[in-house]
Amino acid sequence: MLRGEQQAPDSTGGVAVAEEMIWRCGACGHSIARDADRTPLEGAATRAFVNPAGIEYVIGGFREARGCIETGERSAYWSWFAGFSWQVVLCGECGAHLGWRFESVAVRFYGLVLDRLSAPSA
Fold first, then answer.
1. Spatial contact of 59 and 112, defined as CB atoms under 8 Å apart
2. What are 69-94's pLDDT values in tens digits?
């Protein structure tokens, strides 16, 4: 697993390098989102949903997913979250479908398909 690095002061007053946990595209390894940006979805760490074609997805919530790019039009049709529209998101490197960006008047988050990502390991 690849990780980013972040600097923080250590107990001696110097600077220690802390490893940042990164979620990556399962297809190409591109950095998608920081583990620190995980957010619960209606109180749960993950949620399973079925789309109109009958395909089930298990997604995790992220406040930001800087490695994703949005594509297509936003839609409120069959939204899994009341009051939110959605837009498909792809890996910014290889174009693999990774999930959706959900948006309401006041809130925005990403619902990413967990089996399409490489999870950070401790």
1. yes
2. 999 999 999 999 999 999 999 999 99
> Could you report the per-residue pLDDT of 28-71, keeping only the tens digit for each?
999 999 999 999 999 999 999 999 999 999 999 999 999 999 99
- Judge contact between 100 and 88, C-beta under 8 A: yes
Structure tokens at 20: 């940042």
Token code pair at residue 58: 């298990």
Rg for the chain, CA atoms, rounded: 16
Q: How many domains does the chain have?
A: 1
The sign one gets for the Cα dihedral 86, 88, 93, 98 is positive
98-to-53, 71, 88 alpha-carbon distances in Å:
17, 11, 8
User: How much is the pLDDT for 17?
Assistant: 59
Domain that holds residue 9: 4-118
Report the CATH number that the domain containing residue 49 is assigned in CATH.
Answer: 2.170.150.20
Single pTM value for the model: 0.84
Contact call for residues 47 and 38 (beta carbons, < 8 A):
no
Q: Is the dihedral of CA 121, 103, 67, 96 positive or negative?
A: positive
